[in-house]
Specification:
Layout: H1 3-9, H2 11-16, H3 20-26, H4 30-39, H5 42-51, E1 58-59, H6 60-64, H7 72-84, E2 88-92, E3 98-102, H8 104-116, H9 136-155, H10 168-178, E4 179-180, E5 188-189, H11 191-198, H12 201-214, H13 223-233, E6 242-243, H14 249-261, E7 264-268, E8 273-277, H15 279-282, H16 288-291, E9 299-301, E10 306-309, H17 314-321, E11 325-330, E12 333-337, H18 340-348, H19 353-362, H20 366-369, H21 377-390, E13 398-401, H22 407-419, E14 423-427, E15 432-436, H23 440-449
Antiparallel strand pairs: 1-3, 2-3, 4-5, 6-8, 7-8, 9-10, 10-12, 11-12, 13-15, 14-15
Length: 451
C-alpha cells in the first residue's frame, strides 16, 4: 500500500490545496515564503529569484527559452508546482499567449525578507533566567527518546515503561489511519501503521504532521494558522529557550502536542516556563529529500539469513520483530533470523518485500554500509520470492495512451511519466504507453501543452 509513503513526501501539497484567499494570507509571512521557496524544485527556485524584482507578466515562451531542450520536462514540473502553490499567477495576454507573474503578496514578503531580513515574533529568553538549558547532545537524545517512546506506545502501550499522556488530538491522528480499535479491545496497528514503523524518521514525522493538520478542522482549528505556526517554528534556533507566554492560547495547545512528539522540550522555571526546539522541529521547513540525511545504521544481515542489530534500543528490537524472528537480546546486541514464517506474518500485516529490504539497506551497520550490496543478494531475492508466492497477480489502476501525433510527443510523455515514477509499460514501435493513476494528470498537462 503506497499511500503512507506518498502522503509523507507531499507536505506542501496541503498548502497547495488551500483556497486562494488563505494562501495569500499565509504569504504575508516572510518566513512562510522562505519555507515555500526551500521546498521548490531547483528550477522553481531559479524562476522565483529571477522574477523577484520583475513586476510585469512574463510570457511562458520566454521562460521556456531559459532551459535547454532536454530540460523541458523539469521545466514543466517546476512551472506546475509554482502554479499549484499560487507562487505563479497564470494569465493570458492580448495575443492569447500564456503568461506568468509572481504572486504580489508572496513577491513583496520575500523581497522584504531578503533585503531587510526577518524577525521572529519572539526572541530567545535571557540566559540569567534559563539557567538549566540542556546541551545540544542532551536535546538530541531527548528528542530521540521521546520519539521512540511515542512509536513504542503506538506498537503497544505495554512496551513503554513510563507511558506518555498523548493528547486526544494526537490519538485521533493515530486512530484515523495507523490504529484501529473495536469496542473495549486494545488499539491495534493497521496495515498503514505497520508500514509507518518501517519508514525513515523524517518521513514518519512529516506523515504525522500532515495528518495532524488534516485533522485540525474537526478540532475547530484553522489549518492555515496551524501550517503558519508549524513552518514559523522551524526557523527558531535549536537549543534556545523561548517564553511560552509569547504564544497565543491556540499555539500553547499545539506546542504541548509537539512536545509529545519530541519536536520541542518544555521546561519550567521559578516564574517563567519556556519551550526549546529540537532538530526535528527545524526539519519542517525543508524538503523531505533535504532533511533525510543518512544516520549511522545498526543492522548486519548475513547470507544465512541471520540478523545482528547492534543497538540498545527497545524500539529497534520491536521493529525487527515485524519481519524477523528475534532469538535473544543482549545489552547492546539483538540477534534474530529472517524466516519464511516471519515474512509471511509481515506480508499479512501489509508490509511489502521492498519496504523490508529498504529498511535493512537504510539501517545497514557502518561495517557493511559501504559494501555492494549492503544486504546479500540471496537474502533480498528470497524475500521477493516469498512475497511473490503470495502475490502472483498485482492489480494497479492505470491509464492507457495511444494515437500520439508524433514520436517526439510520445517520448516526451514517457519522460514525464518516468519523472514521476509512473510509467508502467511502453511500446516504442506502436507508440503506446500505460501510466499509473495520479501520474496521468501530469501526462495530460504535458499533452495539452503540445497542442
Amino acid at each position: 500500500m503506497p499511500e503512507v509513503r506518498i502522503i509523507a513526501k507531499n507536505f506542501m501539497d496541503m498548502v497547495a490545496s488551500m483556497p486562494a484567499m488563505k494562501l495569500d494570507k499565509l504569504y504575508e509571512n516572510g518566513f512562510i515564503c522562505e519555507a515555500i521557496l526551500r521546498s521548490l524544485p531547483p528550477l522553481g527556485k531559479k524562476y522565483v529569484l529571477q522574477l523577484l524584482h520583475i513586476d510585469v507578466p512574463v510570457a511562458a515562451k520566454l521562460l521556456e527559452e531559459w532551459v535547454l531542450p532536454d530540460g523541458y520536462t523539469k521545466h514543466r514540473v517546476a512551472i506546475d508546482r509554482l502554479v499549484q502553490l499560487r507562487v505563479f499567477v497564470e494569465a493570458v495576454d492580448r495575443k492569447n499567449d500564456k503568461t506568468y507573474k509572481l504572486n504580489p503578496t508572496f513577491q513583496k514578503s520575500l523581497q522584504q525578507l531578503l533585503v531587510h531580513g526577518g524577525t521572529l515574533p519572539r526572541e530567545p529568553m535571557p540566559s540569567n533566567i534559563t539557567v538549566r538549558l540542556p546541551t545540544l547532545e542532551d536535546l538530541e537524545a531527548y528528542a530521540l527518546q521521546q520519539w521512540e517512546c511515542f512509536l513504542l506506545q503506538l506498537i503497544s502501550s505495554s512496551l513503554v515503561e513510563k507511558p506518555s499522556n498523548i493528547s486526544s488530538s494526537l490519538m485521533k491522528v493515530f486512530q484515523r489511519r495507523l490504529l484501529s480499535q473495536r469496542d473495549k479491545e486494545a488499539p491495534k496497528l493497521t496495515e498503514s501503521g505497520f508500514q509507518f514503523l518501517l519508514m525513515e524518521t523524517n518521513a514518519q514525522l512529516w506523515y504525522i504532521i500532515r495528518e495532524y493538520i488534516s485533522n485540525s478542522e474537526e478540532r475547530g482549528v484553522d489549518a492555515a494558522d496551524l501550517i503558519s505556526f508549524m513552518l514559523e517554528l522551524s526557523f527558531h534556533v535549536i537549543g534556545e529557550a523561548y517564553n511560552i507566554n509569547s504564544l497565543t492560547d491556540f499555539q500553547r495547545s499545539i506546542i504541548r502536542d509537539l512536545a509529545d512528539l519530541g519536536l520541542v522540550k518544555l521546561q519550567q522555571g521559578r516564574k517563567e516556563s519556556w519551550f526549546i526546539p529540537t532538530k526535528l522541529a527545524t526539519n519542517l521547513s525543508v524538503s523531505l529529500a533535504d532533511s533525510s540525511s543518512r544516520k549511522e545504521g545498526f543492522v548486519v544481515v548475513e547470507t544465512n539469513f541471520r540478523v545482528y542489530a547492534y543497538s540498545t534500543s527497545r524500539l529497534h528490537c520491536e521493529i525487527l520483530r515485524l519481519f524477523s524472528k528475534v532469538e535473544y537480546q543482549l545489552p547492546n546486541l539483538i540477534v534474530g533470523a529472517i524466516t519464511k514464517e516471519s515474512l509471511y506474518n509481515a506480508f499479512e500485516n501489509g508490509i511489502t518485500a521492498e519496504q523490508i529490504i529498504s529498511f535493512l539497506q537504510q539501517n545497514a551497520h557502518p561495517r557493511v554500509a559501504d559494501r555492494t550490496p549492503t544486504v546479500p543478494e540471496n537474502v533480498t531475492d528470497q524475500i521477493r520470492l516469498w512475497e511473490s508466492d503470495l502475490n502472483r497477480v498485482e492489480m494497479t489502476e492505470a491509464y492507457y495512451y495511444d494515437e500520439f501525433p508524433s514520436r517526439d510527443v510520445f517520448e516526451g510523455a514517457c519522460d514525464t511519466a518516468r519523472e514521476w515514477n509512473g510509467l508502467l509499460w511502453e511500446d516504442s514501435k506502436k507508440m503506446h504507453m500505460v501510466v499509473k493513476t495520479g501520474v496521468h494528470t501530469y501526462v495530460r498537462e504535458y499533452l495539452r501543452s503540445q497542442k
